Amino acid sequence: HARMMERYPGRFYAFFGRDPRRPDTAEHFRRAVTEQGFRGIKLYPPCGYRPDDEVCWPLYEACIDSGVPVLFHTGTVAPPLDPGLVHPSLLSAVSRRYPELTVIYGHIGRPYWWRDILHISGSNPNAYLELSQWHSEASRDPAGFARILAEMRDSVGAHRILMGSDYAAGPRTTGDRSWYPGWIEFLQTLPDRGAEYGVSFSQEEMALILGGNAQRLLRLD
Question: Considering the entire predicted model, what is its pTM?
Fold first, then answer.
């Protein structure tokens, strides 16, 4: 990933990934940020650790010191991974201990816990919602997803929602185009088509969701 960032400057940015239970993970992470330009860390607790376990604390402290976010997987998982380790209550404990930590809720608890995440993130100005995998809902029920997105917007503000892709499994996004361009097009056209779904989005809000927020959060050129 570091080589890809070097090869495509301004086009590719990476998050660090390493099991926090491995020795010296925090030191490896600090060097990845300061020496290689990594923009944050992604943690995947269902691999067998709690996000509120003290083994993760040095990583959160490194994030705060470096001014970068931590991205948590909060969606569904497949066996043998442990779905109980992605429950939002565990992430609430992290933000309670480190209120200055910038947290990104990957997948926003899709499909079962998204309102729980709204409950714990609504009052936390350092919490962001990331939309990857929600293209499946947009494909099956465009109006239903548009209303969910409006509820997310009303809870945390459009300035704290991030477009995401990850991944192509499941139903394709509406239209004849392949899933990724279709997903982008769906979001881009929500300001014009929102009335069909009983919601309202501005062009400015969608510009934030589709890139402006990531540019600000990750300090991109």
Answer: 0.94
